[in-house]
Amino acid sequence: MAVISSEKDIEALSFTIVAEFDAAVDRVWQIWEDPRQLERWWGPPTWPATFDKHEFREGGSSSYFMTGPEGEKSRGWWKFTAIDSPRRLEFNDGFADESGAPVGDMGETHAVVTLEEVEAGRTRMTVASSFENAEQLQQMLEMGMEEGLKEAMGQIDGILAERASV
User: Tell me, what's the pLDDT at 98?
Assistant: First the structure.
């Protein structure tokens, strides 16, 4: 299992998940940069993601949907606020309607992703999300955000191993 820790901090309005991978920082960066790789792990295995837009640059945005086991769709969006390749990216994140337009009732979160080499050929990825208020954080946790992210990150090792053998 790639995930080594997850921590909720209601007072700080944050959720942080840390994972490590047997791949160099540049290689792990590609799973964020390339939408075809990203959609293979973003979302739990039973809710695979499809990115129909992925402007991976500061000021760019992404639009995606996840498809559930019964064919139901859940849409989301990202707005990239900072990208420092290959070590750090930041983006705002939210839910969207069927047309991909942001919906406000669930608010926005802000994610900071950092990649660091912990030893030669091994990378630690930290995803720190901050929330607008405690109710939003609690609601996201009740929706299964923690378990979903763990399951999502659990798919990354396979993608990295596959590309390493090509």
Answer: 87
Q: pLDDT tens-digit profile of 127-142?
A: 999 999 999 999 999 9
- Going by C-beta distance under 8 Å and a sequence separation of 6 or more, which residues neighbour residue 10? 134, 137, 138
Instruction: Specify the pTM.
Output: 0.93
165 has a pLDDT exceeding 60 = no
Tokens of 40: 């293979």
The phi, psi pair for 76, rounded to 5°, reads: -145, 170
| 3-state secondary structure labels for all residues of the chain | CCEEEEEEECCCCEEEEEEEECCCHHHHHHHHHCHHHHCCCCCCCCCCEEEEEECCCCCCEEEEEEECCCCCEEEEEEEEEEEECCCEEEEEEEEECCCCCECCCCCEEEEEEEEEEEECCEEEEEEEEEECCHHHHHHHHHCCHHHHHHHHHCCHHHHHHHHHCC
